[in-house]
Design a protein that fits this description.
21 strands; eleven-stranded mixed β-sheet; 425 residues; single chain; 2 domains; 25% helix; alpha/beta
Amino acid sequence: MLSAFVPDKGINRGIVEQIAWCNGEPDWMTEIRLGSLGLFDEQPMAEWLVANMPDIDFQDIYYCLGPQDVPLAGSNEPPKAESESEVIDRKRRDDLKKQGVLFCDMDTALVEYPQLVKQYFGTIISPGDNKFAALNTAVWSGGSFIYVPPGVEVEMPLQAYSQYSSESAGQFDRTLVIADEGSKVHYIDGCSAPIYTKDSLHSAVVEIVVKPNAHVTYTTIQNWSSNVYNLVTKRARVEAGGHMKWIDGNIGSKLTLTCPSCYLVGDGAVGEALSVAYAGKGQHQDTGAQMVHAAPNTVSKIITKSMSKDGGIATYRDLVRVDVGAVGAKSHVECDALILDEDSMSETFPDTEIGERDAQIGHETTVSKIADEQLFYLMSRGLSEEQAMGLIVEGFIDPVTRMLPLEYAVEWSRLIELQIAGSVG
């Protein structure tokens, strides 16, 4: 299937208007895009990003590409995808509609459900949040839209998969999930990219609205090639009694910067973040989570596992904030790093802000290496070095892997094994 629309490289008002025109968008979305372009132009690059993305050239990127055929994990058929980041679990859409569940790509949602999109778009992550949120809002294309009506529980996970298909491509998917009161949904997003000679940019925004007593699980498995800059802004607003769980798996990329966050704004809201990151040669994984307790009796948990090898850098950042008035808040953080050789690095930057005396906050951090004695013991039992290291790593990441649906847990373990095999062999 051929791309339907390939604009010139670069970003300017004309490109943004062309994207809007090709999508047949309402005027209010075009106005949002153009306003966001202005914010993107005004905001300077953060010093940290300048240092870690010295080669990025925003005028040497295609900001919208056409449709591709993308394989779904565990499926023998490659369903059609209507854009670079298109919902492809299409067989279930009729069944979901009977329940009142809306599940489609964002481009379709803008046409078919404009009032819902207008009501929530940009309300969780504003264009002015950061430079790359502004960029995404200006040029977004594709991504997923989910609305679950009150009281409806979606039994099987909803799934989507996106893949780069062009060199010097930018991918700017936009995902919006709305779980109405008392509903329940699990969404799984997979991403990958082949290796090209030039660097590529993935700048995504994920907004999630968790209404009272609703439950949302958002799982991301990202397997990027080593020349992709992967910058993602993810945030959920969790109302009274709601429960939000982020599960993040990050492999590959030249630089990944992602920090899923929960704003716990209702009494008894719960936020969880579980993540695994692997940094190999020439790779920097900057991951973590943010939990903002803005209401009484809120609870949060952060569990992260990072691995680095062959000179890779694994950075962990977190923010746990308890606002004034958020009495009875509880939070627990576990940050574990495994360094697999002498050339690699692990960094930790925790940030805790407490506005109430009765807050219960726990924070545990460990950094360890695979000891020669561990490898010797396992190898003396007949395992190769590669098998021994793989077994140790598998045990290390098990707390997160067990949270995945079976087929994704198997795929995730396989991807980790391939990384270890490539570095050992």
